[in-house]
Amino acid sequence: MTDDYSMLDLFLTMLWFFLWIMWLFLLFRVVMDIFRDHDLSGWGKAGWLIFCILLPYLGVLVYVIARGRGMGQRDIKQAKDNDAAFRAYVRDAAGTGSASHAEQLAKLADLRDRGAITEAEFQQAKVKILT
Question: Quick one: 87 and 106 in the same domain?
Answer without folding.
Answer: no
